[in-house]
Amino acid sequence: MRQLKYLLVVLGLILPGMAFAHGPSRQKVTVTAEVAADPAEVWSVIGNFHDMSWHPAVFETQGEGGNDLESVRVLVLGEAGGPTITESLYKYDADKMSYSYYIDDVAVEVLPVTNYSSHLTVKPRDGGGSLIEWRGAFYRGYPNNDPPAELNDEAAIAGVTAIYDAGMAALVERFGAP
Amino acid sequence: MTRVWLRSWNALAHRKSRTGTLVALMTLVATQLAAGDFAYVTNQNSQELSILDLDARTETARISIPGKPAGVAVDLKGHVFTVSPDSKVVRRLDAAGTILAAAQLDGGPIGVAYDARQNLIFVSDWYNARIWVMDAETLQTLQVLETGSAPAGLTVSEDGQWLASADRDSDQVSIFDLATLDLHLRPTVGARPFGLRFAPDGRLFVANVGTNDMTVLDPVSGEVLGTVKTGERPYGVAFALGRAFVTNQYGDSVSVIDLATLETITTIDVGEYPEGIDTTSDGATIVVANWFSNTVSLIDAATLEVVGEIETADGPRAFGTFIQQRN
Questions:
Q1: What is the ipTM of this complex?
Q2: How close A169 gets to chain B, by Cα (Å)?
Q3: Where is the signal peptide, in residue numbers (chain A) (predicted)?
Q4: For a designed S-S bond to B160, which of B4, B32, B117, B302 qualifies (C-beta 3.0 to 4.6 A apart)?
Q5: pLDDT in tens, B293-318
Q6: Cβ separation of A24 and B70 shorter than 8 Å?
Q7: Do A30 and B4 touch (CB under 8 A)?
Q8: CATH T-level topology, domain B8-325
């Protein structure tokens, strides 16, 4: 019991530090999709920060605050009681059909990244329809040197890309290819 | 569906929207900007150094720098120092980009600063709370200084008296006396300081990523002279015409602060994830590296407008002093 307490004390001291630290090299990912629907229609579906139901991996979007800055959402993944990602809105521009957010809290087992920020934007596509652009900037999940394979730069890029790809595939299915 | 590693789309989008202004200003600026300055921009993602002719506004060379380079410093003799945290290598190049010397370190080297008086460079170790003191010529390590946790940015005061490090995970800066390399003070600043620089008037400006503000310090007494609100995630700071210019990494902008009043004058939109920032030798232009957009933005320090953009390689960070005047 005493050992457990000691362990908790040590973890309590170390974990906040780990949450701050990050790897040496920030990564970037951009995924785009072209759809047949016009930008206003696409934005009406994906432009609400508190409704991520368009993404197949998201079971539920919790939280409130609408599209006001510093509004916080909790994405429940997969099923009720599934893993969560907590995110904060830091830019919202309805005219430009774009919003930006960062992850406040996610387990690296769920998404192997730290210091993650992201932008989602809808633009008119040349020749009609919309161009949807989703981009992320982040560090790998392991903040120190010599990361294990599941927490290295490549794993971080693969994890984010997989989320974006899944979301975009669902949007193309929903709105049709142009 | 196509997946694009940024470069193309974003750079194009930016250029498209500004073409009109750019063309109109081209001739005007060409006459204003004739300082013979070059920018040496470390591109972390593509592992290259972009050499930019700031007068001609073109990239004149792209040099392979393995190991994900971030930190950069220039000296007075036409040399450029780069720091690659992944491979832990510090390099010295000449103005044309030829690699003249390299030193293998360990830990997590990231930031670098140059001391002209003693011909030394200083390199921060992100993982081991220390600074390497190195001979700028041979790149031999002469001494190691102890800092707080996760030192990132380094800066040398213009009078050559002080060296300071932003100790990110200790929420402090370490100030060293350059004459003796002894620790002078460890003042507390805002949360997670990453970039910092001495102003021409000797005050130390520290950008705090965690509190979205900048701490202004007297390096002699360690007294906090002021705290200035910035945009989201302030990263780097440079000075021109009595103003401080701070890159707001998440704001895609540069905050302009009056050095006399410490009031914010305006906020200028630049590219995405602006990071490194420096001033041309004539003090007329501020150059900002846009990490996501793969460009640098040129800001007229007098009119506070973006007057041009130059493309770089992928992931420009330019973390340090990166503008050098060639004769």
A1: 0.81
A2: 8
A3: 1-21
A4: B117
A5: 999 999 999 999 999 999 999 999 99
A6: yes
A7: yes
A8: Methylamine Dehydrogenase; Chain H (2.130.10)
